[in-house]
Amino acid sequence: MTNSKIDQAMVLAAGLGTRMRPITNTLPKPLVKVSGKTLLDHALDSLAGADVQKTAVNVHYLADQIEQHTKARSKPQVLISDERDILLDSGGGVKRAIVPLSDAPFYILNADSFWIDTDSSNLISMQSTWDVDQMDMQLLVAPKEKSVGFDGRGDFFMAPDGQLQRRGDAESAPYVYAGAIITKPELFKAIPDDVFSLNRLFDDAISAGRLFGHVLDGLWLHVGTPAAIDEAEQAIHAFRQAA
Known about the structure:
By secondary structure, the chain is of the alpha/beta class. It has helices at about 40-50, 65-70, 90-95, 120-130, 185-190, 200-205, 225-240; strands at about 10, 35, 35-40, 55-60, 75-80, 105-110, 115, 135-145, 155-160, 165, 175-185, 210-215, 220. The model has no long low-confidence stretch (mean pLDDT about 95).
């Protein structure tokens, strides 16, 4: 296995943020601040810390605000992918956004969840275990019981070799998708539809035995509602105090 360095990415930032109302009546969710930093900057700073040079960011709701905000950044370089005309869902948004990127593997990050690293970058750690020959997608996953702001039943089971399977009919699963992926652009280009979900590619990769997980080292936070902001800030403070 020989992997080249991953230096490009895409950040999903086009959602409507309806559960974050009334804050998002006038502010796009990616620009909501948690611990003094916007959700979008939490994602972009993680990419910068992994030495990513270029990232696409898709926009739809209150798009002008996000465009203006990202102009202040030089690392990574931000390329805006405009979805003002139509929301393309997560997979379709990635498919459009990666057009100006190279045909090399890249990161995908959500802008509505983030994590606090411990001693090293989780994105760099993901890259160290990424196997382009064995994997179509590698997901960052967090232990459900240690996650902040997540009240679901868990998303995945993980085999000893890292392969992922969905929770299915099980009462619960130990791992939660933590909003970061390493994947290949050709997976998106092979789908003829413009609008589709990332879950379609997750399922395809599972069927082929090529969806793998990497367990997050640190604190994962999902910030979906106004009440979750305070919970996240308290958890971050406690995590940093204990470090």
